[in-house]
């Protein structure tokens, strides 16, 4: 620790796993300055809101939290500082400045390494720099979990889907060099971490350099990581269908540490809507990719993201999405009502009415839920390997993930955190499995 002080910080993460990863790095930065973390925002000297801009609701939540904190701030002394970091800070920095003067510091997702310095110098806003290379070189990596650790390997996005803010909030695609990633991962595994989840908005577009300066792909990185003995499991997210290369698909057949689960968002089952979304592939290409994956890894569990009610989505288009879901049969999937985002091309298109959107979301979610329940039922009376990573809500209960990424809970007299155990499934609930170890 550089300099010890008595200050405490409180941090709240909104949004995706990459934001959670960033929050962990922000924590490590302040811990190295001598700050302690607190779960009580009222007792903190520094409050950090690490924000998400992906849908309107996510962004609005930030403003309501700022309002709540403003009240606490009024009762406290000058030392109480509020930081807004993350994607809302990047997209709406100037607006936050005007709309919420109680915010002391505003910093985007590619410049948060400068936060401790900003606070010392009292600079209010840094959100115009995209400095991923500099950022990663300045970060501090301390494991926050004994079992599973997330590692950002790729940042930003060059795809420009017509509905999405990420290319504007995170900047263009950047891949970290292999050696940097291995150094970070080795720190974690030496602390007992068993599973590494590689992160990126377009993780399978990874194209970092290896130590001979040669550009390599995600399958190369996964193979390098799997050579580390102490790593037992590797996963990656989120992938774009057009970057599912043959080498990556083949890794699912060859690399036993790479888990048989893939989150591969398609958003819509209609070619017309996919085109309007600028997704750069059609339904057949997606199905072909899945067939290839199944030919090398027949049991692979598949997950996806869907947007319903995109402008111009007709009943027929929606029906195509339902048909695609029926055809693929997802083990789990996430679905969202289209939310127009300022500055994106789709926000200029005429929206469809809210009632139709709501009805479609509800029908789609029922189908996905039914698929998830049926998928989980297949495991009852089967044995499956589970990596237990945390305590459950009840006494002697532990929770973990199956190789197919299902949540599994089990009772044990012994602490089984960090263990991979063959678990006999006795019951399936809507969203989880119960097993005996
Ligand atoms: N990079 C990933 C996803 C990033 S955002 C990919 O390419 O798939 C996570 C999910 O949020 C997206 O897959 C999409 O389903 C949803 N999403 C993004 N923008 C949205 C918007 N404007 N309205 C509704 N959902 C959106
Ligand atoms: Fe957004 Fe599309 Fe990039 Fe995913 S691929 S982050 S949805 S622009
Ligand atoms: Fe949200 Fe930014 Fe992630 S907009 S989903 S926190 S990349």
Q: Describe it for me?
A:
The protein has 437 residues and is of the alpha/beta class. Among the domains are: 4-129, Rossmann fold, CATH 3.40.50.12160; 141-259, 2-Layer Sandwich (Transcription Regulator spoIIAA), CATH 3.30.750.210; 383-436, Nucleic acid-binding proteins (OB fold (Dihydrolipoamide Acetyltransferase, E2P)). The chain contains 13 helices and 19 strands. The chain has helices spanning 17-32, 56-75, 87-99, 115-121, 132-138, 166-170, 178-190, 218-226, 246-254, 271-276, 283-296, 315-328, 354-377, and strands at 8-13, 36-37, 46-51, 81-86, 105-107, 125-126, 148-152, 154-155, 174-175, 195-199, 233-237, 261-263, 301-308, 332-337, 383-391, 397-402, 407-411, 420-428, 432-436. The strands form 5 sheets. A 6-stranded parallel β-sheet has the order 2-1-3-4-5-6, sandwiched between helices. Helix 8 (218-226) packs parallel to helix 9 (246-254), helix 9 runs parallel beside helix 11 and helix 12 runs parallel beside helix 13 (354-377). The longest helix is centred in the last third of the chain and has 24 residues, at 354-377. It starts with 7 loop residues before the first strand and ends with a strand. The mean pLDDT is 95. S-adenosyl-L-homocysteine (SAH) is lined by residues 54-55, 163-164, 166, 201-202, 238, 240, 265, 267, 305, 307, 336, 338-339, 341.
């Amino acid at each position: 620790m550089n300099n010890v002080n008595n200050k405490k910080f409180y941090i709240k993460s909104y949004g995706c796993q990459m934001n959670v990863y960033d929050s962990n790095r922000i924590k490590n930065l302040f811990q190295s300055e001598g700050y302690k973390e607190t779960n009580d925002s009222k007792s903190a000297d520094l409050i950090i809101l690490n924000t998400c801009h992906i849908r309107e609701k996510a962004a609005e939540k930030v403003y309501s939290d700022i309002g709540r904190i403003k009240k606490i701030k009024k009762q406290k002394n000058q030392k109480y500082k509020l930081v807004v970091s993350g994607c809302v800070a990047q997209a709406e920095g100037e607006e936050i400045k005007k709309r919420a003067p109680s915010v002391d510091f505003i910093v985007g997702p590619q410049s948060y390494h400068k936060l401790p310095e900003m606070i010392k110098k009292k600079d209010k806003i840094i959100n115009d720099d995209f400095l991923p290379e500099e950022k990663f070189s300045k970060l501090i990596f301390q494991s926050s979990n004994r079992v599973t650790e997330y590692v950002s390997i790729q940042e930003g996005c060059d795809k420009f889907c017509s509905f999405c803010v990420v290319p504007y909030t995170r900047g263009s695609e950047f891949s970290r060099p292999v050696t940097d990633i291995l150094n970070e991962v080795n720190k974690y595994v030496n602390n007992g971490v068993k599973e590494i989840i590689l992160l990126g908005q377009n993780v399978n577009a990874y194209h970092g350099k290896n130590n001979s300066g040669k550009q390599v792909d995600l399958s190369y990185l996964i193979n390098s990581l799997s050579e580390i003995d102490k790593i037992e499991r590797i996963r990656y997210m989120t992938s774009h269908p057009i970057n599912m290369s043959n080498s990556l698909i083949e890794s699912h057949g060859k690399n036993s540490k790479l888990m048989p689960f893939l989150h591969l968002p398609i958003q819509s089952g209609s070619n017309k809507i996919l085109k309007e979304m600028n997704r750069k592939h059609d339904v057949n290409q997606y199905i072909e990719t899945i067939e290839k994956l199944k030919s090398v890894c027949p049991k692979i569990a598949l997950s996806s993201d869907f947007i319903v009610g995109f402008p111009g989505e007709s009943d027929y288009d929606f029906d195509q999405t339902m048909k695609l879901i029926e055809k693929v049969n997802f083990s789990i999937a996430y679905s969202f009502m289209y939310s127009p985002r300022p500055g994106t091309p789709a926000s200029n298109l005429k929206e469809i009415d809210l009632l139709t959107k709501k009805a479609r979301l509800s029908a789609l979610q029922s189908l996905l839920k039914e698929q998830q329940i049926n998928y989980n039922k297949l495991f009852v009376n089967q044995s499956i390997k589970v990596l237990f990573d945390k305590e459950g809500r009840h006494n002697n209960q532990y929770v973990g993930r199956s190789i197919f990424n299902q949540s599994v809970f089990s009772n044990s007299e012994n602490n089984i955190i960090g263990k991979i155990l063959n678990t006999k499934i006795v019951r399936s609930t809507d969203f989880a499995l119960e097993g005996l170890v």
